Amino acid sequence: MASSNSLIKTSTQHVCDYCQSLSTEPSYKTSLPLPNQSQSIVNLKRCSRCHLVRYCSIRCQKAHWKAGHKAVCLPTSIKAPTLSPTQNPHVRLLPPSFTNLLQEKKNYIFVNSADLYDTNLLILLHGAGDSSLPFSKFATKLALPQTTTLAISAQLFEKLPFELGFTYFNEMDYNTGHKLQCSDPKRMKSLQNAVEKLSKMIRTLSEVWIPERIFLFGFSNGACLAMETALSWSYNRIDSIVLGGAICVAGGIRYLEENKDAKLT
After folding, report:
1. Which of 7, 12, 21, 33 has its CA 20 to 30 A from that of 194?
2. Which residues lie below 8 Å from residue 155, measured CB to CB, with a gap of 6+?
3. Res 111: pLDDT
């Protein structure tokens, strides 16, 4: 490293490679929210040795150097080898605890961000009887910047009768063919189990992504699960840890109605 405090200005700004503070570049203000850094928009400077990483301060540069940048920082005069996506320091992989929990790859579809900056994670949940594939394709077409996507199948949750596929929780009494009321104990128990199971998955994912950078997108049955899970994290949060947010289509809050008047602190 040329010098620990040697930084030069850069015209192309992203986020600080150590603390993830957002730069003042307008094009990056349109990406998914970065909750922790929303109050401190800063100018970034890049490493004067390799010109590949950017920092908001000398302190972050020194910390990143000790954390591992020292091993990969090469002077611009030395041609660095081309990195594959799995070697790129900005590309993140699913933690083993998550893959072990979901048992088989058919239970999820994981796609890294197109720009190879996996800052955020978007989890997609499909409707009853559907599959994760069309939702993964939908997320790929969105091409959200700095966002990797994870479509989770309901195969590990509840199986529908008559070969209708899978659902995250039961919304019907298949013995009578009637829809279960929102307050029906069977529906509430099934939904609560689904929330706990998804939350367990999210806790393993938080080994790689902090919860504030994990977002949920759900449709119908998946939308209800997404909103219930996000709300559950809000009520049960520890040290102000909450999820980044939830986007729900054709679904909403059903289970935690008894807490609708509760105040979040």
Report:
1. 33
2. 106, 107, 166
3. 93
Q: What is the pTM of this model?
A: 0.65
Q: Which of 7, 119, 116, 115 is nearest to 60 (CA)?
A: 7
Helix-strand-coil split of the chain, %, nearest 5: 35, 20, 50
Q: Look at residue 2 and tell me whether its pLDDT is greater than 70.
A: no
Identify the pLDDT of residue 71. 63
Tally of residues, the chain = 265
* 215 SS3 class: strand
Helix/strand/coil for 230: helix
Please name the residue ranges forming H helices in 33-106. Answer: 58-64, 70-72, 96-102
d(C-alpha 227, C-alpha 138), whole Å: 20
Residue 148 pLDDT level (bands cut at 50, 70, 90): very high
Q: Which residue in 223, 112, 106 sits closest to 167, CA to CA?
A: 223
Q: Which residues pair with 55 in a beta bridge?
A: 45
Contact present, 122 and 135 (Cβ < 8 Å): no
Average pLDDT, the chain: 78
pLDDT in tens, 207-240: 999 888 999 999 999 999 999 999 888 776 544 5
Which single residue is written with the structure tokens 């994981």? 110
Q: How far apart are CA 168 and CA 59, in angstroms?
A: 45
Distance CA 236, CA 101 (A): 22
Which residue, 236, 38, 244, 35, is CA-closest to 123? Answer: 244
- Model pLDDT for residues 198-215, shown as the tens digit of each residue: 999 999 999 999 888 999
